[in-house]
């Protein structure tokens, strides 16, 4: 294999590796967007669970919301 053939092969490998790198970068960006979305959903659901737990405590008489009068009134 002469020098020109080696150079051509190296350039082909470089192009292949650049495309692979771009593909991996795109996949990483997609996964990061999905992760961000899942974190937002998880935070929203955690807030909803806390709200429901608070409502259950109020309904069972174990807790009070700020706008309800205590039982001795």
Q: If you had to describe this structure to a student in words, what would you say it looks like?
A:
This protein is mostly helical and 73 residues long. It has one domain (1-57). It contains one helix and no strands. The model has no long low-confidence stretch (mean pLDDT 89).
The description of the largest β-sheet is:
none
Counting DSSP E segments of at least 2 residues, the number of strands comes to: 0
* Mean pLDDT figure: 89
Head-to-tail CA distance between termini: 97 Å
Categorize the overall geometry. Answer: rod-shaped
Order of helices and strands: H
Radius of gyration: 30 Å
The stretches of 5 or more residues where confidence is low (pLDDT under 50) are: none
The helix-and-strand class reads mainly alpha
Number of domains: 1
The residue fraction in helices comes out at: over 70%
- The percentage of residues in β strands lies in under 5%
Q: What's the helix count?
A: 1
């Amino acid at each position: 294999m002469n020098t020109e053939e080696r150079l051509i092969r190296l350039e082909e490998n470089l192009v292949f590796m650049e495309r692979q790198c771009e593909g991996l970068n795109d996949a990483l960006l997609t996964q990061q967007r999905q992760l961000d979305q899942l974190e937002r959903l998880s935070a929203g659901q955690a807030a909803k669970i806390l709200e429901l737990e608070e409502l259950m405590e109020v309904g069972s008489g174990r807790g009070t919301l700020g706008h309800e009068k205590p039982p001795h009134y």
